[in-house]
Amino acid sequence: MDFTYSQEQRMLTDSLRRLIEDNWSRPKRRERQKAGVLNRNAWGSLVELGVGGLLVPEEFGGFGETPASMLAVHQELGRGLVSEPAISSAVIAVTLLANSQNQALKQRWLTAHAEGDAVLAVAWQEQGERDSQRPLCSRATASNGGYTLEGRKILVWHGAGAQAVIVSALLDGAVALFLVPADTQGVAVQDYPTFDGSRSATINLTAVTLSAEQLIASGAQAEQLLALALDYGITALCAHACGAMAYLTDSTIQYLKTRQQFGQPLAAFQVLQHRLGDMLIQSEMGLSMTYVAAIALGEKDAAKRSRLVSMSKVEVAAAARLVGEISVQLHGGMGMTDELEVGDYFKRLTYTDMLLGDTNFHLQRMQELEAA
After folding, report:
1. Residue 208: burial class (beta carbons within 10 Å; 0-12, 13-18, 19+)
2. What is the pTM of this model?
3. Contact 36/193 with Cβ under 8 angstroms?
4. In CATH, 120-218 is 2.40.400.10
5. Where are the domains of the chain?
6. DSSP bridge pairs for 208
């Protein structure tokens, strides 16, 4: 896979960077975070540049781009610390739905997503389990030619801003995936912020009635779809973290060049130069491992794909935390104040380890897949 930017990728990333510099400045970003709701204008501006339709197949109005383009886009989004549902909706949900066999749902929801008329979320996590992709308590039962859904999902990334949620549940003992419009009777959403400035939700499903057409997949196919979608999401998250690390490294270098001590810039002190070198090395290592994850998405062997993606997530999460910590240290006490955005980036980079499976989960998954 060639990660050298094509002319189209360069134009897209340049346009994204200009948009983010204008609309995702620190004051605007924090203002939207305080509002606590998805800003449709901000999301619409990303959709206009193709973020919403990047992975949507061309037959449904999207661009059908490769993981290489996904990486380029999400690095830019990471540089700007964009908190909109570009990963949860435009990567995870779109990948899951696009690879399913339900043509009716694909025609309706993928087309709407590419046009900016819909945001999707994926609800798979439940209370009492940690990062498991198999439902614990959510149940679906066949009734009146359709299904009745009961359950409670937690940590649904951008769940409150979605027009429809892809929900996992057990159907006759097997994993099943359903597409549930947010306005369906019996769906209750409780929204809350995460410490990095993003949003999550708890979704309660009480006697939710669904038609037969709302079943996306069941059994082994459902498990494969969810695993593939999450692997895409993890790879995009790694790219997002790499963009954030690059921006934080650049801004820290500029800070040390301008801040003076004993009549000379801090960048002149050798010990601080070594710390900057550590930041650069970790950023490059994280980016290299993200390339590994992107290449792995093309693997036909699902076990090998997931193992490589987990390996990349572990390395990127470690690099992200180290880069964030060094940046805060080099900025001194101001690093964690609201006066600087260093703290914002540190929180996002730290949260990278917790999203979509923490280090312990991915180390265990690597071990299990290696032994399989």
Report:
1. buried
2. 0.96
3. yes
4. no
5. 7-114, 120-218, 222-371
6. 149
Q: What is the pLDDT of residues 314-360, one digit of tens each?
A: 999 999 999 999 999 998 877 777 778 899 999 999 999 999 999 99
Distance CA 121, CA 88 (A): 6
Integer Cα distance of 358 and 237 in angstroms:
12
Looking at the domain that runs over 222-371, which CATH code has it been given? 1.20.140.10
Between CA 305 and CA 190, with CA 92 as vertex, the angle to 5 degrees is 135
Residue of 108, 177, 183 lying closest to 147 (CA atoms)? 177
pLDDT, position 4 = 80
Q: Evaluate if residue 372 carries a pLDDT over 70.
A: no
Residue 335's pLDDT is 72
What six digits make up the tokens of 38?
């998805």
Rounded (10°) angle between helices 302-331 and 342-351? 150
Which three-class secondary structure string do you get for the chain? Answer: CCCCCCHHHHHHHHHHHHHHHHHCCHHHHHHHHHHCCCCHHHHHHHHHCCCCCCCCCHHHCCCCCCHHHHHHHHHHHHHCCCCCCCCHHHHHHHHHHHCCCCHHHHHHHHHHHHCCCCCEEEECCCCCCCCCCCCCCCEEEEECCEEEEEEEEEEEECCCCCCEEEEEEEECCEEEEEEEECCCCCEEEEEEECCCCCEEEEEEEEEEEECHHHEEEECHHHHHHHHHHHHHHHHHHHHHHHHHHHHHHHHHHHHHHHCEECCEEHHHCHHHHHHHHHHHHHHHHHHHHHHHHHHHCCCCCHHHHHHHHHHHHHHHHHHHHHHHHHHHHHHHHHHHCCCCCHHHHHHHHHHCCCCCCCHHHHHHHHHHHHHC
What is 7-114's CATH topology? Butyryl-Coa Dehydrogenase, subunit A; domain 1 (1.10.540)
